[in-house]
Amino acid sequence: MNDELLTLRNLGKTSAQWLHATGIHSRDDLLQRGPVGAYCAVRARGFRASKSLMFAIAGALEDVHWNQLPAEYKQQLLKQLKEHETPGPPREI
Questions:
Q1: How far apart are CA 88 and CA 55, in angstroms?
Q2: What's the pLDDT tens digit per position in 40-86?
Q3: What distance in Å separates the CA atoms of residue 57 and residue 90, rounded to the nearest whole number?
Q4: Cβ distance 66 to 58 under 8 Å?
């Protein structure tokens, strides 16, 4: 089986399986969702992924080991995650 996700840095078999379960099958799919969106999609499917997965995805898109991502970028991702997880005001129906 030719799995494009497994060719990306930082992503292993389990990460690829989780991403596939959310409809992400390629680097382009990852780019479209972004690290935060892809991580949230994995979590929404019930997988117990840590924030390290979000950093691993970001590193995969940048082709660097996730530990080599700049601290400022990691903080930006965490801020985006917090904003994504914070519910907005209720919508009127």
A1: 25
A2: 999 999 999 999 999 999 999 999 999 999 999 999 999 999 998 77
A3: 31
A4: yes
- The number of CA neighbours under 13 Å toward the Cβ of 35 is 26
Short-list 3, 6, 81, CA closest to 42: 81
Tokens 């390290």 belong to which residue? Answer: 52
Kind and range of the H or E run holding 54 = helix 51-62
Q: Tell if the pTM clears 0.70, that is, is over it.
A: yes
Give tens-digit pLDDT for 58-68: 999 999 999 99
Per-residue burial over 52-71, b if 16 or more Cβ lie within 10 Å, else e, is ebbbbbbbbbbeeebeebee
Q: How far apart are CA 32 and CA 46, in angstroms?
A: 21
Report the Cα–Cα distance between both ends of the chain, in Å, rounded. Answer: 47
